[in-house]
Specification:
Elements (H helix, E strand, L loop, with lengths): L1 H28 L5 H8 L4 E7 L2 H10 L1 H4 L11 H20 L7 E8 L5 E9 L5 E10 L1 H4 L6 H14 L10 H17 L6 E10 L4 E9 L6 E7 L6 H5 L12 H13 L3 E7 L10 E9 L3 E10 L3 E10 L7 E10 L2 E10 L6 E12 L5 E15 L2 E15 L5 E18 L8 E15 L7 E15 L5 E12 L43 E14 L2 E16 L8 E12 L2 E10 L5 E8 L3
Parallel strand pairs: 1-3, 4-6, 7-9
Antiparallel strand pairs: 2-3, 5-6, 8-9, 10-11, 11-12, 12-13, 13-14, 14-15, 15-16, 16-17, 17-18, 18-19, 19-20, 20-21, 21-22, 22-23, 23-24, 24-25
Length: 622
């Protein structure tokens, strides 16, 4: 044992002396540098600059995804070592070629050139890229498997063949178009989504290949779509009802059991339920399982709106002064499939009470409705009391509405001398509303239009007026368009007329006055009318035209809800088109685009009088 210990001791001394000699030689070779300096040099990090010489989209792609470019952005303390930099520079050409293939460049040439500065503290790297010609799409071979292919020889062949043709037509990568990986992925996703939406929710790609011919630079596309089974709509499974009946939901389904499933049919069903205003939330979908394809259950999940709602308000309007109101809505009065709304408003210049009853929508989205309204208008130093009743039917189809109604109006106008003028009118009317807007509350693009046509008979007790028949028409159009540099254009026009003999007296409610918000700003509410030659007070007229053009944009990028605006309004009222003399108002304003609509504050000047007027309103599209 002692002999072994002596041997290990001798070996240790020998190694120690050898190491001392080696360290001494290393120190001489380094020119006398300390061990600490050697260690610091061993940890020296590689600082470098990278210049990518390539065209626009190629340069952007490489700058975002090439490792050599990405690591240039890391913190100084985590920068690359010389060894790591050598490795990235070596693999950069191959990595760049792989990235360029996603843009359709399959024959790219890439070279990395390196140059160190004088003290070797920084490397300048240049990536020279010649992408070569871009490959384009050649032939497309789109095949189908599953029931979509099998149905082509069955009774439902026309539908299957039409869908096959539609999917081929939908393919966006036409012959001769540049091939890119993103376009390839998007095209497959679009076709697959369409097949799933048109009755085949289990559709999938059985195979998809893009074969590149580097000589011709053509990419041949070969795909096979496995449609799976065609799904047919089955029974309804309704969840979430508390007070409303299932019949209210079922009659709006819009499809018969056994019909082929389409995504649009469920979306239409969902929209019809939401438009009833009986539900705060609705989801209509299916759970596609191959075993249920013959009659897949349709799941309807609803969240009922409150059965009753009450709203109170108090405020000020430039048109009608101070006012207070209370409104009550009952969505199932006495358990009947009706919607009852009542409202009372008390103001300085306008007092109103109204009651409206409407049925729950029928399968064709038609609703019967009736309303009764009493109103007292004290504007323009007059006292006009009006009682009106309506009975009609409203049909809603997507963004369009048609209202057919009969209306009775009875007015009593009290004069300063205590006399009363009684007038009444009975009419039949049709009103169409068409909306093509990006938003009903805050529109920036599109248009809306509303046309009213009516005819009836009027009676009155005025000594210088007669009873007789009349017709009426009114058209209102609003238009919105975004402009360059963040500007937005808004325009509207309103044109209306009563067609009757001059001596036929009509209720004041049916005649027209202009001025104020949504009319001609700069002038007081309903201050534009017919000036009588005998000096009597301003009267409502039988012809109306107003128009407006407005430019608006956000005040600053940090406050996108706050817009500034400049506008010009024009219009007037008369008893004939020949005598209508438009007046002009113009000014500037602010818009706060809130969730309840655009809150508008305008300062407008009436060109005719030279006076300025402040207007405040909430703007909501027709």
């Amino acid at each position: 044992m002692r002999a072994v210990l002596r041997a290990f001791t001798a070996l240790g001394l020998s190694l120690l002396l050898s190491a001392c000699g080696t360290l001494g030689g290393l120190k001489e070779a380094l020119g006398g540098k300390s061990a600490a300096t050697v260690a610091a040099n061993a940890r020296l990090k590689a600082a470098y600059r990278l210049d990518i010489q390539a065209s626009g989209e190629v340069q952007d792609l490489l700058a975002r995804h090439l490792d050599l470019a990405r690591f240039q952005q890391i913190a100084e303390n985590d920068s690359l070592s010389p060894v790591e930099l050598d490795r990235l520079a070596a693999v950069a050409p191959e990595q760049a070629r792989s990235l360029l293939e996603t843009l359709g460049y399959f024959d790219a040439r890439v070279e990395v050139r390196r140059q160190a500065n004088a003290d070797h503290t920084q490397q300048d790297l240049t990536l020279i890229v010649d992408p070569g010609p871009r490959s384009v799409v050649g032939e497309l071979d789109l095949q189908f498997e599953g029931e979509l292919d099998a149905e082509a020889g069955q009774p439902e062949a026309p539908r299957a063949l039409a869908l096959q043709a539609e999917l081929r037509q939908l393919w966006p990568m036409g012959k001769g178009r540049p091939f890119t990986q993103s376009a390839w992925s998007s095209a497959k996703s679009a076709v697959l989504a369409r097949a799933r939406a048109q009755g085949y929710p289990l559709a999938r790609w059985a195979s998809s290949e893009a074969e590149v011919d580097t000589e011709t630079r053509l990419v041949s596309l070969k795909l096979s779509l496995d449609s799976g089974p065609l799904f047919h709509l089955g029974s309804l499974q309704i969840e979430g009802l508390q007070h409303q009946s299932e019949d209210t939901v079922r009659r709006l389904a819009g499809y018969e059991q056994g019909e082929p499933y389409t995504e649009q049919s469920l979306l239409d069903f969902q929209e019809r339920l939401l438009r009833t205003q009986l539900f705060d939330g609705v989801t209509v979908d299916i759970q596609p399982e191959a075993a249920q394809a013959a009659a897949v259950p349709v799941r309807v999940r609803v969240k009922e709106a409150p059965r009753q709602q009450a709203t109170t308000g108090i405020g000020y309007s430039a048109m009608n002064g101070y006012n207070a109101s209370v409104e009550h809505l009952h969505r199932l009065p006495a358990g009947l499939p009706l919607r009852a709304r009542s409202k009372f408003q008390l103001g300085q210049l306008l007092r109103k009470a109204e009651l409206e009853l409407s049925s729950h929508p029928q399968p064709d989205m038609q609703r019967n409705l009736g309303s009764l309204q009493w109103e007292q208008d004290l504007n323009n130093d007059k006292n006009i009391r009006t009682l009106s009743a309506r009975l009609g039917r409203l049909r809603e189809a997507g963004h369009d509405e048609r209202l057919v109604f009969a209306e009775m109006l009875r007015s009593i106008e009290s004069g300063e001398a205590g006399e009363s003028l009684h007038s009444s009118a009975w009419s039949g009317n049709v009103q169409w509303t068409r909306r093509r807007l990006d938003s009903l509350l805050l529109p920036t693009q599109g248009y809306s239009a509303q046309l009213l046509l009516g005819a009836g008979r009027a009676d009155n007790n005025a000594p210088n007026q007669d009873s007789g028949v009349f017709g009426r028409a009114r058209l209102r159009i609003e238009y919105f368009k975004p402009l360059p540099s963040g500007w937005h254009l808004g325009a509207r026009t309103d044109i209306a007329q009563i067609m009757a003999r001059d001596r036929v007296g009509l209720p004041a409610k049916m005649l027209y006055l202009a001025g104020g918000d949504d009319s001609v700003r700069g002038y007081a509410y309903q201050s534009l009318g017919v000036d009588k030659e005998d000096g009597s007070p301003l009267a409502a007229g039988r012809k109306l035209w107003t128009g407006s053009v407005e430019l608006a944009r956000p005040v600053m990028d940090s406050l996108p809800m706050l817009w500034g605006a400049a506008f010009v309004d024009a219009g007037n009222v008369a008893d004939s088109w020949q005598s209508l003399r438009p007046v002009v108002g113009y000014g500037v304003g602010a818009r706060l685009r809130s969730p309840v609509g655009a809150l508008r504050l305008d300062l407008a000047r009436a060109h005719k009088t030279g006076k300025w007027r402040l207007h405040f309103s909430v703007g909501i599209a027709l």
